[in-house]
Amino acid sequence: MTVKPLVSISNVRKVFGNNEVLRGINLDVYNGEVVCILGPSGGGKSTLLRCINHLEKIDGGVIWVDGEIIGYRLQGNVLKELPTRDIRRQQREIGMVFQHFNLFPHLTVLENIIEGPVKVRRRPKNDVISEAMELLRVVGLADRASSHPSQLSGGQRQRVAIARALAMKPKLMLFDEPTSALDSELVGEVLDVMRKLADAGTTMIVVTHEVGFAKEVADRVAIMVDGEIREMGRPDEVLFAPKDERVRGFLARVVRDGAGTGNTQVEENQV
Fold it and tell me: Is 10 helix (H, G, I), strand (E, B) or coil?
């Protein structure tokens, strides 16, 4: 029996003005798989993530998640954008963790986590609180439930952001450079939480410059250059035996002694 991918991205294009940021991206991600996307600045990595949950509209191709076209419906042979209500329903199934934490500053940690399940999914508050406390234990912050974001370190705030996304029980988790805004000493605590999620079978697409993390945790690694996936495969194949010249040039700058520790990264801005 053929196993269908949870995520299927087919010939996806995205254009900003005269700049074609995504040039026919093709990528399948299977249930329980961790795919890490690396590449030089301007390659379109973050734009691809934003297209997967329709924060950006695509200009060509199609994205499927769990059998549904994201953001559109087929009308004849033409894609028509879904009504906002249906887009929001799809987005509820796709958790996203951003570079910056986007927590509500006036709410406590616990209130941040239960906001979506209670107000969006209309679930009983007591049930959600119990689950939220368990998530806080998973991310190592059960003792900070009553704290406000301003009382937390950057690493702690990012861990809360991860717990908040998980509270919606998404089918898929997207991580957009989740450690790039953190001081180096705080990076490890966030990556440790992500390792736990991977071990638990969470389906994850992770845009990162953390080569060591990708080597250790990813089932597959994709390298994006100039809006294209130039290499795709197992971490040991892609990171240490790339075939594409541009990929070799990129990795020559980042793969070095100690790259497997999870702390090696490139200090570049993302598209």
Answer: strand
| Spatial separation of the C-alpha atoms in residues 238 and 64, rounded to whole Å | 25
Q: Per the domain annotation, does 228 fall within a domain?
A: no
> Residues 193-249: pLDDT tens digits?
999 999 999 999 999 988 989 999 999 999 999 999 999 999 999 998 899 988 988
User: Which residues 6+ apart lie within 8 Å of 192 measured at CB?
Assistant: none
**Higher per-residue confidence, 173 vs 181:** 173
Give the span between the Cα atoms of 192 and 49, in whole angstroms.
22
Tell which residue, 265, 225, 228, 266, has the closest CA to residue 246: 225
Does any domain span residue 11? no
Q: Are the CB atoms for 139 and 190 separated by under 8 Å?
A: no
| Cα 267 to Cα 104: distance, rounded to the nearest angstrom | 27
pTM of the predicted model over 0.85: yes
Residue pLDDT, tens place only, 116-161 = 999 999 999 999 999 999 999 999 999 999 999 999 999 999 999 9
Count of domains forming the chain = 1
Per DSSP, the three-state class of 145 is coil
Site of tokens 């990264």: 265
Chain length of the chain: 271
Q: Where are the beta strands (DSSP E) in 104-200?
A: 172-176
The residue with tokens 């075939």 is 243
* Residue 107 lies in domain: 95-169
- pLDDT tens by residue, 6-62: 999 999 999 999 999 999 999 999 999 999 999 988 899 999 999 999 999 999 999
Q: Does residue 165 belong to any structural domain of this protein?
A: yes
Does 219 map to a domain? no
State the Cα angle at 145 between 141 and 151, rounded to 5°. 85
